[in-house]
Fold:
Amino acid sequence: MPKIKELECSRCKATVSAETPQTVCPKCAGSFYVRYDFSGFRGVEHRMRISEKTPGASAGMWRYRSVLPEVQPVTLGEGWTPMLRSKRYPNVVVKEEGANPTGSFKARGLALAVTMAKHYQLKKLAVPSAGNAAGALAAYAAAAGIEANIFMPKDVPFANYVEAKMYGANITLVDGLISDCGRIVAERKEKEGWFDISTLKEPFRIEGKKTMGYELVEQLGWEYPDAVFYPTGGGVGLIGMWKAFAEMEELGWVKPGKRPKMIAVQSSGCAPMVRAFEEHASASKMWENAATFAAGLRVPKPYGDYLMLEILKESEGVALAFPDSVILASLQDWAKNEGIFLSPEGATATAAYDHLLKTRFLKPADRVVLFNTGAGLKYTDVTAEAAGILRN
Ligand SMILES: Cc1ncc(COP(=O)(O)O)c(C=O)c1O
Ligand SMILES: [Zn+2]
Structure:
């Protein structure tokens, strides 16, 4: 495993040591990127070693331990999720992140964050969450024997509440959104002795999420697809995958050149990134009255907006939003015609794919990865309500 060289601010490039736990850049409050000493891991021969059988704690996303911190993992089997080929669109695969522990891709980021928290001997963690991060933190904290303090909107999908409860987390349901939850954590953390592992305010959730980038490239035979569709809330996955692509090029594991177009998808009920992208802004503005059944996308002001906007531009991608009715129609379409029960967030990606084919932004021959970031089954209450399904 590589040694962490330093943490580097994504905004002002200031560096700090990772010997002690860090949050954001002390100079400019930018998010940190973890930088490694990759000497000794460069070249295709090291990439080959990953593809060899990786038993025990190295399974799942830990097969990429050569690009992750040198610590003992807290793992529940996260990562190495299926790539499901569409029956109707031969060049489309769905990255089924619902197969992760706790049924969402949040497992990857929280596995890494809790692994590092254990390494640093932190005792109490706190997180504001749209729902799935709460469930994932609760699970990994339970596995690590660390206290989890969770703040989430009172109308999160019921599964998120039940799972966090079962895992024994301290839960506060807030009459508001993740931004309100974040404010409460920020106000109370010092007094309570909590370490804040909010999206992009802690360096290691990106490291967990970046494994999605390594994974999809490996699963496509170490080649980039033409486009990656990412249901975007706080944006950690988008930012993490882009970091992974840069690292893979630095390592000589893929040919530099044509990285995929990154497509950020949101609901029209909460689309701060789409608005900022369309206005060619360098940051987003708070989205008022955010409302959508794609609960994970209810992030009215993402902390890493500036990073996402840079990535969208650099990748020649686009940000798109669709009304819940269109998202629901796509969810039903994929369930009936492909046998895949998407989360509302995942169905935002499939809706966006249809749209970009119609507008010819993409061709049917383009190789595309659509992220289903969570299992449809976690959303039976909100999806049933949106679809008007009642048990008579
Ligand atoms: C299922 C699902 N998809 C997408 C998102 C958005 O993820 P991110 O904050 O990494 O953009 C979330 C966040 O809660 C989620 O739960
Ligand atoms: Zn900085």
About this structure: DSSP finds twelve helices and 13 strands in the chain. The mean pLDDT is 96.
